[in-house]
From TrEMBL:
Ranges for domain NADH-ubiquinone oxidoreductase 51kDa subunit iron-sulphur binding: 345-390
Cofactor(s) listed in the protein's UniProt record: [4Fe-4S] cluster; FMN
SMART domains: NADH_4Fe-4S
Key words of the record: 4Fe-4S, Flavoprotein, FMN, Iron, Iron-sulfur, Metal-binding, NAD, Oxidoreductase, Quinone, Translocase
Species assigned in the record: Paraperlucidibaca wandonensis
Designated name of the protein: NADH-quinone oxidoreductase subunit F
Family: Belongs to the complex I 51 kDa subunit family.
E.C. no: 7.1.1.-
Gene that encodes it: nuoF
Length: 441
């Protein structure tokens, strides 16, 4: 389900509390230019371009504490600050990472399909802060509806003079295009995205140099996520103090987050909620809890690349540090409920098959280690595993962990595997074949 329906409609959505979704239509149709402008759309862009210097925009975003909403959570203002000062001659680029191939994640799809002008406005303001002249929305190729809606919205914005040369007579130039990718998970890694945009094989690049200095076509480049960029207009329009005051007490992250739950819950969906809300509230008040006849066995807080947690961990607050306290990462904030009928070995085999298939093959631990984990999991699933297979899997979790591979693909792939063995080891042990009975002499 991709619209904010169900329990979320029982609370009032306003520009002050739901900056990303308050303009959404109840019928799930896209908000086009006239309606968007009638709901204060592009007012922040006009303010930014006409009254603020690039450094002032960047400072407000940094002071607001906006962090990346794609999963890594890197401070956006700090990332912007890594761009070298503009010399007024060298081309500079802003790329929107709209690849969104993380299994169980569809938050950016909702924003692009139903609120395309919000992303466009956010990119215009961000480009001004970065003094970038060209932008690309690197979109997952399977998102056909999002591509259509974004291109229509871009046509509307160009016709209004919001994109192009000398925008609104301010002297600011910015061209923006939609680029649909071939559909690879690895393109979510920003340097692999850049390679793909250039027409190259989607392999991650060695860093340094970082994209901020040497990015697309060797020029200074900033890559931000859809949801991240969609927050920028509200920060410029409503101010830093407002943004830092939205989250629940105890949260170290500011603003709101697109969060959701899928699986055998009564009301699967995605909602814009303040950082710091507990997973229990998300699970019960919004997702409605488990369907009748099912009980919650485990859950993942933010996509297939995050570790599994138990029902008792639902008390954790949904922000990076809150989920970190119970042993994993918040990731994309789109949670998965695993019910009592699911065998964890089968679930992990399915996940690791996906991650093994999506490896770019650049480095040995990822290229060889992930297929090895699949082979072992298949044997355990058939009840033909060896008594050493579980320890081998745990060794692979260590060999493919953070800092052991060229990019973060493999560490994300093995995090759910390690947590599944930690909490459900007996299910893995059950897949070990019993030794044949000794034959009498």
């Amino acid at each position: 389900m991709l619209s904010s329906v169900g329990p979320v409609n029982r609370i009032a959505r306003s520009a002050e509390t739901h900056p990303l979704t308050w303009r959404l239509r109840d019928d799930g149709q896209a908000v086009w230019l006239d309606e968007y402008e009638s709901k204060d759309g592009y007012s922040a862009m006009k303010k930014a371009l006409k009254t603020l210097a690039p450094g002032e925009i960047a400072s407000q975003v940094k002071d607001a504490g906006l962090k990346g909403r794609g999963g890594a959570g890197f401070p956006t203002g700090v990332k912007w600050g890594l761009m070298p000062p503009s010399d007024g001659v060298t081309p500079r680029y802003l790329l929107c990472n709209a690849d969104e191939m993380e299994p169980n994640t569809w938050k950016d799809r909702l924003l692009m399909e139903q609120m395309p002008h919000l992303l466009i406005e956010g990119m215009i303001i961000s480009a001004r802060a970065l003094e970038a002249q060209t932008g690309y929305i690197f979109l997952r190729g399977e998102y056909v509806d999002a591509a259509r809606n974004l291109n229509r919205a871009l046509d509307e914005a160009r016709a209004k003079g919001y994109i192009g040369q000398n925008i609104l007579g301010t002297g600011v130039n910015f061209e923006l295009y939609v680029h649909t990718g071939a559909g690879r998970y690895i393109c979510g890694e920003e340097t692999a995205l850049i390679n793909s945009l250039e027409g190259r094989r989607a392999n991650p690049r060695s860093k340094p140099p970082f994209p901020a200095a040497v990015g697309v076509w060797g020029k200074p480049t900033c890559v931000n996520n859809v949801e991240t960029l969609s927050n920028v207009p509200a920060i410029i329009g409503n101010g830093v103090t407002w943004f830092t005051g939205i989250a629940r007490p105890g949260s170290e992250d500011h603003g709101t987050k697109m969060m959701g739950f899928s699986g055998k819950v009564k009301n699967p969906g995605v909602w814009e909620l303040p950082f710091g809300i507990t997973a229990q509230e998300l699970f019960e008040d919004y997702a409605g809890g488990m369907r009748d006849g099912y009980t919650l066995k485990a859950w993942q807080p933010g996509g297939a690349g995050t570790g599994f947690l138990l029902p008792e961990h639902l008390s954790a607050q949904m922000y990076a540090g809150g989920i970190g306290k119970v042993g994993t990462r918040m990731g994309t904030g789109l949670a998965l409920a695993v019910d009592h009928t699911v065998n964890m070995v089968s679930l992990l085999r399915n996940m690791e098959e996906f991650f093994a298939r999506e490896s770019c093959g650049w480095c040995t631990p990822c290229r060889d280690g992930l297929p090895w984990s699949v082979k072992l999991l298949r044997a355990l699933e058939r009840g033909e595993g060896k008594d050493t297979d579980i320890e081998t899997l745990l060794q692979l979790v260590g060999f493919l962990g953070p800092g052991k591979t060229f990019c973060a693909h493999a560490p994300g792939a093995v995090e759910p595997l390690g947590s599944a063995i930690k909490y459900f080891r007996d299910e893995f042990v059950a897949g070990v074949a019993m030794p044949a009975a000794a034959t009498p002499a």
